Amino acid sequence: MSETAEPPITFYRLQGCPYCERVTRLLTEYDLEYRSRFVEPMHSDRDVVKRVAGVRTVPVVVDENTGVTMAESANIVDYLESTYGEGDRPDAAAASAGGDA
């Protein structure tokens, strides 16, 4: 990938969101290049996320490699593991527990 090209994954997140941090850890663990887009704290102000994913919750991941746009941290974790992981992570069940902001 050239240095001027955008990373194939765009990650919509909220500062300090534990569900977003779960996704961040996994993206880092799999050494995936991504672009962070921080969203507004107020749900009603998250128009960009609503346009992209149809929801105002975060995290949301848009993966240009596969054409997938996905919300909900548990779904994103499952997707990243099945698409980019080896499937043998011992903490996979713990990583996929929980809701979203």
Automatic annotation (TrEMBL):
Q: Which Pfam families match?
A: GST_N_3
GST N-terminal domain sequence ranges: 7-88
Q: List, alphabetically, the InterPro entries matched.
A: Glutathione_S-Trfase_N, Thioredoxin-like_sf
Which intervals of the chain form a coiled coil?
none
Which SUPFAM superfamilies does the protein's record reference?
Answer: Thioredoxin-like
Q: Do you know which PANTHER family this protein is assigned to?
A: THIOREDOXIN FAMILY PROTEIN
This chain belongs to the protein called: Glutaredoxin
Give the species this sequence originates from. Answer: Natrinema altunense (strain JCM 12890 / CGMCC 1.3731 / AJ2)
Q: Highest lineage ranks of the organism?
A: Archaea, Methanobacteriati, Methanobacteriota, Stenosarchaea group, Halobacteria
